[in-house]
UniProtKB/TrEMBL annotation:
Enzyme class, spelled out: transferase
Name of the protein in question: Aminotransferase
Source organism: Rhabdonatronobacter sediminivivens
EC number: 2.6.1.-
Required co-factors: pyridoxal 5'-phosphate
PANTHER family assigned: ASPARTATE AMINOTRANSFERASE
Subunit details: Homodimer.
Catalytic activity: L-aspartate + 2-oxoglutarate = oxaloacetate + L-glutamate
Domain named Aminotransferase class I/classII large: residues: 31-392
Length: 400
């Protein structure tokens, strides 16, 4: 009898974490490494949020809280949904967890039975399929390539739905592509979902505040109120507020689902960090104006990286609507050899050779379910991005 569970054999470790760890090891060994693999803002958590956390410690907010979030933070989350999305929720419809990933995990664990299907557009965040598998469900991957702007079409969604479909996981703007669904594109999807009342929507809105140009963010429950009773709207403070390490994610949805998610959390981690919850309260209720400054900074970096990568031989880099990632297609690089003789048969070969030969760490497209491509996180200083893109350009120029 195997000691490890069969469930564990269905999943793999996070490729993004593995590549980030590999880059860190090489850097610690003295190598000249630039890591563009981690999805993490490079600036500090704003001062007023840090001050709120310090004050919380001094005030003794260091004990257990309600399992799925303090009443004060839940009320702030309700205010956030009203302010930003015109969505009305009560605190009983809100759940707070140790990061957005745990919110998704709780929902899947609370709802999936063997044989239940979850539709996931690809490219996808690396954890979606594996969390579905761990929860006993079946991921149904729907390719959404560059020909559709990395957006799933209504026709593709309709074709993927079966009587076993329980969830659609929806992410806009997307990790890894940065692609966003505007109102027309989202309306086409919600129109399909109205005809399939057994399908719930898990909307991952983590990059809501990082959208560029004239793109206007809209979330499914906001677009189609008739889906409110079967939509879980997921968000958090990690990306927009530069609070990745604080580990606070949250969601709002039907009360019966929120209660079930709370039951899962009560028997796993229990409450999120009490101090982090006080910091998140300050983030959501405090000044929001600086989010525009951050957005402008990321848009400048996006334009820098897109321009540089489109100048690389064999690379085509679409312009994303949001987040802080680009997902260049490298079809023109496959089948060649690097200057040091490495054959580039896959996008994983490309990423491995790029790291070994230039010191630039990126995540290969197969990790996100659609090849050949790679993901760049441009949440780094401008000079670092210029250096990295220059190395990528020289690497591509050397392919023969």
């Amino acid at each position: 009898m195997s000691f490890l569970s069969q469930r564990l054999s269905r999943v793999k470790p996070s490729p993004t974490m593995a590549i980030t760890a590999r880059a860190a090891e090489l850097k610690a060994a003295g190598k000249d490494i630039i890591s563009l693999s981690a999805g993490e803002p490079d600036f500090d958590t704003p001062a007023h949020i840090r001050a709120a956390a310090k004050a919380a410690i001094d005030a003794g907010h260091t004990r257990y809280t309600t399992v799925d979030g303090t009443p004060a933070l839940k009320a702030a989350i309700c205010r956030k949904f009203r302010r930003d999305n015109a969505l009305e929720y009560t605190p009983a419809q809100v759940s707070v967890s140790s990061g957005g990933k745990q919110v998704l995990w709780n929902a899947l664990m609370a709802t999936l039975n063997p044989g239940d299907e979850v539709i996931i557009p690809a490219p996808y965040w690396v954890s979606y399929p594996d969390m579905v598998l761990m929860a006993g469900g079946t991921p149904v991957v729907v390719p959404a390539g560059p020909e559709t702007g990395y957006r799933m079409t209504a026709q593709a969604l309709e074709a993927a739905i079966t009587p076993r479909t329980k969830w659609l996981i929806f992410n806009s703007p997307s990790n890894p592509t940065g692609a966003g669904y505007d109102a027309a594109a989202l309306r086409a999807l919600t129109d399909v979902l109205l005809h399939h009342p057994q399908v719930w929507v898990m909307s991952d809105d983590m990059y809501e505040h990082l959208v560029f140009d004239d793109f206007r963010f809209v979330t499914p429950a906001q677009m189609e109120p008739r889906l409110m009773d079967r939509t879980l709207t997921v968000n958090g403070v990690s990306k927009a507020y530069a609070m990745t390490g604080w580990r606070i994610g949250y969601a709002a949805g039907p009360e019966r689902l929120i209660r079930a998610m709370g039951k899962v959390q009560s028997q796993s981690t229990s409450n999120p960090c009490s101090v982090s919850q006080m910091a998140a309260l300050a983030a959501l209720d405090g000044p929001q104006e600086y989010l525009e400054d951050n957005k402008a900074l990321f848009q400048r970096r996006r334009d820098l990286v897109v321009s540089a990568l489109n100048g690389c031989a064999g690379v085509h880099c679409p312009v994303p609507e949001g987040a802080f990632y680009v997902y260049p297609d490298i079809s023109g690089c496959i089948g060649k050899r690097s200057a040091k003789g490495t054959r580039i048969g896959t996008d994983e070969d490309f990423a491995t050779a790029l790291l070994d030969e230039t010191g630039v760490a990126v995540v290969f497209g197969a990790a996100f379910g659609l090849s050949p491509a790679f993901r760049v996180s441009y949440a780094s200083a401008d000079d670092t991005l210029r250096d990295a893109c220059g190395r990528i350009a020289r690497f591509c120029a050397g392919l023969r």
